[in-house]
Automatic annotation (TrEMBL):
Recorded name of the encoding gene: PANK4
Subunit text: Homodimer. Interacts with PKM.
Family to which the UniProt record says this protein belongs: In the N-terminal section; belongs to the type II pantothenate kinase family. Belongs to the type II pantothenate kinase family.
UniProt keyword annotations, A-Z: Acetylation, ATP-binding, Coenzyme A biosynthesis, Cytoplasm, Hydrolase, Manganese, Metal-binding, Nickel, Nitration, Nucleotide-binding, Phosphoprotein
Protein name in the entry: 4'-phosphopantetheine phosphatase
């Protein structure tokens, strides 16, 4: 079945019992841990637990401006408050480490309410007594296949770019796939000692439709007999250096070339190990290992294709210890699938396939909390990411065994769904450039983020002037984020497709890790206060224009307002060196038409027609952008009879306006402007959370309240 079977040489890989495992690096938040689960294979242990994490959040509260003239007073006050965040931790390590790790958990575990640990995997029985003795928890065994499917459903639903195809010799070996909103049905080919083929139709409906006794155990066993190599990773390392054509009989060896009438190329394998029967020579270990790998992979690939066709399925995922991120196995499986389906089906692999069993076991133990009712997001600050699969590295360096591998998932206190206006969510790509596939663009953006780091650290410290330890925490943030950038420089596929969004999100996660929830809070407060003083003047100047002049001025105002984005280093440099740089200067620096993307004429023509029923506006920056750019534009739409929905960030990111801040700004603007005031009272202008805590918008993950507001 799916159990890992690797025998562990404890003498060479055992862990020094005196070693110190810092809980803030591996077993994080252990003092608040509860609901444990464990998946033990023959070589690797995967541990899961739930914890609550206390972290700071920035809150804004409106001042009372009714008592006296408070024109020079801030619009709102900012305070730091503590909130509790739910987090899932998944840790993977060699079985040789298990006793030391259990001792460490026992010594640091504070929560004594937990009585049971859910367990799955072939090794759960072997280590049952040890776990119960060390942790004083009762081991409750869960069905391995059920856990596997639950875990697979969870990662496909919650982790963007979880699935990938493997492309050997490409600039990026990994081509990450968009997950379809409806993840069902799919075929899971789990390659452990043997092969299980599971058809998954819903969250709780799956069936083992087939399988084979020829799997990873066959490769390992025959490989050990042929090469005298006992370790699985070393056997794969041999295969990566071998030439199967020295051992396999090809079509051209039989027919002198291709067999054209049957569509068989000359380089196709006609008989695995076919040359060994007649050749009077010794074959190298590398060549025999490579031939064996091709034989097993081709057999599994053909079997997978037949079942995919039988059940009319195109989504076929591969997992199990035979895969485990190894480039050689992923390449041979990919080649086999492409050959037998003529490219109609892709072999899909999973970033976190090693965690599926323990995730499923954890979910079984947490069913009373109904974790599937929430959305979860990967915490890049605490996750290891996908490691390099270069076959040139020593197996013990590149294999995940021998190191601790971590995945952290944070519960989002909001349900995120696809925006219903998306025509085809499965083909929607929110990012413009995949930096994992563009080396020049990747290096450019990594350099930009490194260069901007000093400014981010400075603003983080300035956002908490009353906390003397802020400078020390900011330096820890700098160190961690620089380390992440270096990792992404060498392993751009670590967290899925590398984009500007993921670089920004990683930075936000690292800032939150060190309790800097809103480094731009003071900047936003100052810019909002400043822009409000010019709002009425801006509206008055627009009303003095002719209708057509006003429409053009409003669009230019939107473009100019969007300049005030502190996420762009060139902009932040200007704003820091010239605080007086304002709206009029930004408008003067706009390019003349035609713009790079210019459909203004079509927009103007549409405005000459009937009013739109509703306009959904995802707002961006605080200050000039929202107050002098967006609100005058919104005001014009309201005057035309269009309902307007303003969607803003649920949590802080850069200088983007948050929903709480927008509520206060709208209230203040409504007090100045009768158009805005009446629209708010009549519910023609509504404010909703976008669901985002990122500077970049992803319409596949939008707050349910936003979607409900625009469903007609």
């Amino acid at each position: 079945m799916a159990a890992e079977s690797e025998r562990v040489d404890r003498s060479s890989h055992s862990m020094d019992k005196s070693i110190t495992l810092p809980p803030n690096e591996i077993f994080r938040n252990l003092e608040n841990a509860k609901r444990f689960a464990i998946d033990i294979g023959g070589s690797l242990t995967k541990l899961a637990y739930y914890s609550t994490v206390q972290h700071k959040v920035a809150k804004v509260r409106s001042f009372d401006h009714t008592a006296k003239d408070t024109e020079d007073d801030p619009l709102y006050e900012i305070s730091m408050q503590e909130e509790i965040l739910a987090r899932l931790h998944f840790i993977k390590f060699e079985n040789a480490y298990i006793e030391t790790c259990l001792d460490f958990i026992k010594d640091h575990l504070v929560n004594t309410d937990t009585k049971v640990i859910k367990a799955t995997g072939g090794g759960a029985h072997k280590f049952k007594d040890l776990i119960e003795k060390k942790l004083k928890l009762r081991v409750d065994k869960e069905d391995e296949m059920t856990c596997l499917i639950k875990g697979c459903n969870f990662v496909l639903r919650n982790i963007p770019h979880e699935a990938f195809v493997y492309v050997k010799h490409a600039d990026s070996e990994f081509r990450f796939q968009n997950t379809h909103p409806d993840i069902f049905p799919y075929l899971l080919i789990n390659i452990g000692s043997g092969v299980s083929i599971i058809k998954v139709e819903s969250e709780d409906t799956f069936e083992r439709v087939g399988g084979s006794s020829i799997g990873g155990g066959t490769f390992w066993g025959l490989g050990a007999l042929l090469t005298k190599t006992k370790r699985f990773d070393e056997l794969l390392q041999l295969a990566s250096k071998g030439q199967h054509t020295s051992v396999d009989m090809l079509v051209k060896d039989i027919y002198g070339g291709s067999y054209v009438s049957l569509g068989l190329t000359g380089d196709l394998i006609a008989s695995s190990f076919g040359k060994s029967a007649t050749a009077d020579k010794e074959f190298s270990k590398e060549d025999m290992a490579k031939s064996l790998l091709h034989m097993i992979s081709n057999d599994i690939g053909q079997l997978a294709c037949l079942y995919a066709r039988l059940h009319n399925l195109t989504r076929v995922y591969f997992g199990g210890f035979f895969i485990r991120g190894h480039p050689v196995t992923m390449h041979t499986i990919t080649y086999s699938i492409n050959f037998f389906t003529k490219g109609e089906v892709q072999a899909l692999f999973l970033r976190h396939e090693g965690y599926l069993g323990t995730i499923g076991a954890f979910l079984k133990g947490a069913e009373e909390d109904n974790p599937n009712q929430y959305s979860w997001g990967e915490n890049y600050a605490g996750s290891s990411g996908l490691m390099s699969t270069s076959p040139d590295l020593n197996p013990m360096q590149r294999a995940r065994s021998g190191t601790f591998d971590m995945l952290e998932m944070d519960r989002l206190e909001r349900q995120l769904v696809n925006l219903p206006l998306l025509q085809d969510p499965s083909s929607y790509i929110p990012d413009t450039v995949d930096l994992s596939e563009d080396a020049l663009a990747r290096e450019y953006w990594l350099y930009c983020f490194e260069e901007a780091l000093d400014g981010v650290v400075k603003r983080a410290v300035a956002s908490q002037p009353d906390l003397p330890e802020a400078a020390e925490r900011a330096e820890k943030f700098r160190h961690k984020y620089l380390h992440k950038l270096q990792t992404l420089r060498h392993q751009p596929f670590a967290y899925g497709s590398l984009t500007v969004r993921s670089l920004l999100d990683t930075r936000e996660h690292c800032l939150n890790e060190f309790n800097f929830p809103d480094p731009y809070s003071k900047i936003k407060q100052r810019e909002n206060d400043m822009a409000l003083k010019y709002f009425q003047k801006a509206v008055k100047s627009l009303e003095e224009l002719s209708w057509e002049q006003r429409q053009f001025a409003l669009v230019r105002g939107l473009l100019a307002g969007n300049v005030f984005d502190w996420g762009a280093k060139a902009v932040s440099d200007v704003l820091e060196s010239d605080p007086e740089f304002g709206f009029e200067q930004a408008k003067r620096q706009l390019e003349e038409r035609p713009w790079l993307i210019d459909n203004y004429d079509q927009w103007l023509e549409r405005l000459n027609g009937p009013p739109h029923k509703c306009a959904l506006f995802f707002v961006d920056n605080s200050g000039i952008d929202i107050i002098l750019g967006v609100f005058p534009f919104v005001r014009e739409l309201l005057c035309r009879g269009t309902e307007v929905v303003l969607a803003s960030n649920s949590s802080p990111a850069l200088n983007d306006v948050t929903n709480n801040e927008l509520q206060i700004l709208t209230e203040r603007i409504a007090a100045m402007d009768p158009v805005i005031q009446s629209a708010v009272k009549e519910d023609r202008l509504t404010l909703v959370q976008s669901g985002s805590s990122s500077p970049c918008l992803d319409l596949r993950n939008v707050h349910q309240s936003c979607c409900r507001r625009i469903e007609f």
